[in-house]
Amino acid sequence: MRVYLDHGHRLVARRWRGPAGEIDLVMEKDGEVIFVEVKCSSTHARAAEALTKRQIDRLLRSAEDCLGTFPLGSATPMRFDVALIDGQGRFDVIVNALSA
């Protein structure tokens, strides 16, 4: 989360929970909402592998629920990032990780 705050993002919610599930972090900057899934493992590669299709589907449904709380609803600019944390505590952020 610190990397986002250091770059001017605002924390909207930590562990946001809705009917479809939980979103680890919801951040905002300049009107764009960033949904962040945090994955931890011994290496960044293993952390990335831990993000399953089922989790992605849950994240997308949860984000849709969360967007309903914003004034523009589903028209709110958004993206999905994945924050990877390895066993040494080092992190790497994959920006816009779920883009086509």
From TrEMBL:
<dbReference type="InterPro" id="IPR003509">
    <property type="entry name" value="UPF0102_YraN-like"/>
</dbReference>
<dbReference type="Pfam" id="PF02021">
    <property type="entry name" value="UPF0102"/>
</dbReference>
<protein>
    <submittedName>
        <fullName>YraN family protein</fullName>
    </submittedName>
</protein>
